[in-house]
Structures are given as C-alpha cells and as structure tokens.
Design goal:
By secondary structure, this protein is α/β, with parallel strands linked by helices. The chain contains 2 helices and 6 strands, in the order E-H-E-E-H-E-E-E. It has a 6-stranded mixed sheet with strand order 2-3-4-1-5-6, with helices on one face. The model has no long low-confidence stretch (mean pLDDT 93).
Amino acid sequence: VAEHAAVVTLTGDLGAGKTTFTQQLAKQLGVTEPVVSPTFGIMKGYQLDGNEYFDQLVHVDAYRIETMDEVGPLRFEELFQEPRTLVCLEWPSNIESIVPTNKVQVEIEIKDKEERVVVVR
C-alpha cells in the first residue's frame, strides 16, 4: 500500500467522458451512491468499504479553478499525500504545479458521438 494517494489525471474536452470514467471506476470499487461531477463543489469523497488498497475515492474537478491562489484552502497538496486514497482529477492542467509527478494519466478523445479513444500513460 502506497504511503501517499494514487492519483489518476483525466484529460479531454468537455463531454469526452471524464466523469463517466470516474463513475465506472467508482462502481467497480463498490460505490453505490450516485457519482456526479463535482464541478461546483470542486471535490467529493466516497468511502470504499472493505477495499484491499483504498479507503476512499476522491473525485476532484479543477475546471473552475482559475488561479493557484484558489488552491490553498482546498488542501489538495495534503490530499495527494493521504495514504489509501484514490484521487480522480479532472482538468489537472489547472493545478499542474501541485499535481504529483507519480500519477496515471488518462486522456480521452472524442472520435464521434458515441466513440472515444482512451490513452493511459
């Protein structure tokens, strides 16, 4: 088990499927409550009961963050250090200077209305 959060960054245009990716991941991890985009709340956490690796999934949507001055009170840097935490981070470029370098990058590209190309790095 890592001594810090596992961070998955999600990039793609509006409507590409970043929140859908997080919803499906949450479902696979046993989250039963609705997972919705936290665009206005910025961040939403979900408890993961009985998971071997993680105690919580935290869904972060940095879309509305315009300057790094807004980040301090949100305590993202502490979140990224939290053990047994899985963070799905939409719009990571808006807080790029504090996103951990050790992360999984998921890029979602819209091919047509129902088709996506997903690249994982």
